[in-house]
């Protein structure tokens, strides 16, 4: 993230959670429930975009992937297991330290960087992901511009973020933080983006939105793809043409 988009308060908040980021029952338990569903969407989009057989284990072999706002590597590690050369970037140094330790323990060669996305050496990536991050930055338009600048021609970008609705305010902010499902102070509802607002930012930066789907609670699985976008949604985008 560029200096114009990192929110020091947000970085400190998530950095304080680094120690138990990989604990599925800890402060990041909600992310552990979300991750398989987000991964399923990412894999579907990868297969469609690059015409990969769904049975192919190494769907990202020979490709470079960038996960921005990577936390301790919950998404970066599965991308590496799909064969990608992965770079993870996060505003909190504590998260990057936890990510490096965990990747080493898994035998995964992932490059991690703490700080501003703009400070990375010049490079573009075939896949750029950023999950539940754009609602935490100080300047969403500048942040999207930074992401797009890192997307290679012919590449794929996938984002997820909460929607700004009355339901998300009730369930994601007030109820979830009150009952401890997410740590207090995690969400600022006023910073949530509606799908049309995020689409406008992506299109303004030159991309074409090719898919969007809701991410909603499921009694059976915790979360499911499709259905209502009232709480959360995922977007896939690419260069036009």
Enumerate the spans where pLDDT stays under 50 for 5 or more consecutive residues.
none
Shape: globular
Residue share in β-strands: 15-25%
The CATH class designation is Alpha Beta
* Tally of helical runs: 7
CATH T-level fold name = Rossmann fold
Biggest sheet, strands in spatial order?
A: 3-2-1-4-5-8-6-7
CATH superfamily: Vaccinia Virus protein VP39
Mean pLDDT: 87
Specify Rg, calculated over alpha carbons: 16 Å
Sheet with most strands: 8 strands, mixed
Total discrete domains: 1
Percent of residues in helices comes to 25-40%
Secondary structure class reads: alpha/beta
Order of helices and strands: HHEHEHEEHEHHEEE
Distance between the termini: 27 Å
CATH arch. level architecture: 3-Layer(aba) Sandwich
Q: Care to count the β-strands? A: 8
The gist of it:
With 241 residues, the chain is an alpha/beta fold. It has helices at residues 8-15, 29-50, 76-81, 93-106, 140-149, 166-179, 195-204, and strands at 64-68, 85-90, 111-114, 125-131, 151-162, 208-218, 222-225, 232-238.
